[in-house]
Amino acid sequence: MSDSILLALPVVLPAAVCAALGLVWLVDGHPREKTVGRLTMGCWSVVALAVAALAARSGFGASVPRAEYGDWLAAGGQHFPIGLQADHLSLVMLSLSAALVWIVALFSRRYMHRDPGFHRFFILMNMFGAAVMLLFSAASYDLIAVGWEVVCTASFLLVAFYQQRPAPARGALYMLAVYRLCDVGFFMALALLHHHGGQPAGAMATAIAFLLLLTAMGKSAQFPFSDWLPRAMEGPTPSSAIFYGALSVHAGAYLLLRARPILDAASWVPEAIIIVGALTAARGALVGRTSPDAKTALAYATVTQLGLIFVEIGLGWDRLALWHIAGHAVLRTAQFLRAPSLLHDHHEMHSAAGGHLAAAGAPFGALMPRPAREWLYGLALDLRGRGLS
Amino acid sequence: MTDLIPAVLHAALTLGVVLSAPRASRTPRWIAGAAWISVCVGGAWASGSLAGAALGWACALAPFLTDRFGSSIGWRGAASLLFFPAQSGLAAAFEKGPLLPLSLLLNGHLGALGAARLLDALPPAAVADARPSIVATALLGAAWSVVSAYGETHPRRALARLMAGQGALIFAGLSCGNASGQAGALALWQTAAVASTMLVCVYAGLEARVGRDALDKPGFLGLASSAPRLAVFFAVAAFALGDLPLTLGFPAAELLLLGVMDVGYIGLLLPAVAAVNAFVVLRLYARLFWGKSGAEIQGMPDALPRERWALCAAMLYLVFGGLYPSALLP
After folding, report:
1. Is A75–B255 a contact, with Cβ atoms under 8 angstroms apart?
2. Best to test chain B binding among A152, A176, A212 (most B CBs inside 10 Å)
3. What are the mean pLDDT values of chain A's consecutive 10-residue runs (389 residues total)?
4. Scanning every residue of chain A, which has its alpha carbon at the shortest distance from the alpha carbon of B287?
5. For a Cys staple, A252 with which of A164, A216, A217, A333, CB 3.0–4.6 Å?
6. DSSP 3-state percent helix, strand, coil across chain B (nearest 5)
7. What is the ipTM of this complex?
8. Closest approach of B287 to chain A, Cα-based (Å)
9. Alpha helices, DSSP H only, in B70-123?
């Protein structure tokens, strides 16, 4: 099988499944849960195999498979070519995405069983999956923007999945507002990149890099845009796991890694990334300690790790940042998927320990004087209310 | 060929509107009025001249002044149907006037077309000097419209302001004086015409089902539980009007952005306008379709077959344009 087919499969196949399921629903079709689940699992199995084949053919990043599929848009003297690639960065993210979406699809078949929105959930999951595969394999910023925006759309609809309740609806609108605000930076950067022939230098490189940083801050929930992430947890647990714990939130970090040549040509941007990341990590760690429920605590833990990833990118430690992303995504998916049965697990451990289970984090807390602990607790509660609300 | 695309598309939209309009309003007078608007709009675009655009615009107003649609909007309302800067009158006309015919008229964007034809008629040197100011004015007009739409609580008024904003953006593209801007304006015209007609058709259908007062209530109305397909049609149209990918709105915005950037850095205002525009239209979607539905909405019928076919065709057009935009653009 040629590179062009292997590169296209991970994008086209989930998109086709999404379109097929959507059309069936539109003409009043009611496919069985088993059919929808098997179709999705089959699709993502093929996607995982295609990514594995790409990795093997490229010698695990030694060479870079690329494919061009002609122009998506050729009008008004402008050409937007469709090009996909699988360099080392893309391969890691593609492998991660294929594996995690496969696992979450398997989990969702049982978790969403008999949910009235079962069909809708799988449509949106395939849409999101196709979008992340495009985002991570796109060979141009224009195509990254397409994947980026479809991820935004799918996330908006998934956060409000339980749309009868007002809280998810409000959470989705809040997230949309943050995404749209920060995506202004992406489109401004794209316009400037086109205007300067794709290779900016000097002050223009700095301006573009700052705009890309703004974009990445929104998607990766960096300070002061962190508070959309806990609100996004109103969606179904599998979508929280895969989208806001594993893939979607790392897209910002991926964008910065992809834009390394621009960052290198810019002044002050790496320093700004470090400051943003450090502030985010500190705030996330503090506020997370005051979270009343497991999913919110996990959301702030995610924010903390994303802040650290940004610090690594700012310091130029790209390889470490990439492996941090991979490790964090896998761990967080596992934690989110276990979150619904956390209370059950805790009770089991509690009785197994004879009712003497120590509170998590207590040994570290004891190292700090009580007034300092109380002051930090107050500060965390104060910071919680000072997001971009 | 370029001038024929709007004429043909507008005729198709008119057919769709007539098919999907509530049965009570579809009198022979009403249908004749809608057909007249379509002929005038098509003629104005196809004429390729300033005189043709002006004549088409003037003639298209006639059914509104002769009370063809059951409610007259008066001379002031008619004058406010210009794209810029009379948006306040436009919102009032939308609030009180006949919604579907007004959307047909406004989606012709004859104000933008007339202004662009006027620029073509002026000496090129004078226009070249003034071009950055003209584009800046159009973009600021669009920004004003979408910010006003953000502050609107009534769906009809919000829709009017969003459509006025699209008109200003189309004018920005047409007045760029470069191929990207012109192509972007044509793509945006198609997007705005199809998407906002879909939005208005769905909204008019909802009004016919539950009454206007029910839709003007604050908070989430929860209509998706009774009308999931109407919700999907509205959502796809909202994505297109919000310039999101997989719809024609995305390539339109890309081309327009490149066009206005060639005129000057004022073009960087366009992404901000597009972002607010997308937020407002999706917020409107959320307000209408999300949340828990009240007792008066329970049992409301979903999309009827005649609505479904018309809206489905419009949706496929937007999606096809998003996947393969070159087919719809010169």
Report:
1. yes
2. A176
3. 90 96 86 93 96 89 86 77 93 94 92 89 95 95 94 93 91 94 95 85 92 96 90 84 84 96 92 96 88 81 95 96 95 84 75 71 72 80 58
4. A169
5. A216
6. 80, 0, 20
7. 0.90
8. 9
9. 74-79, 87-96, 99-106, 110-121
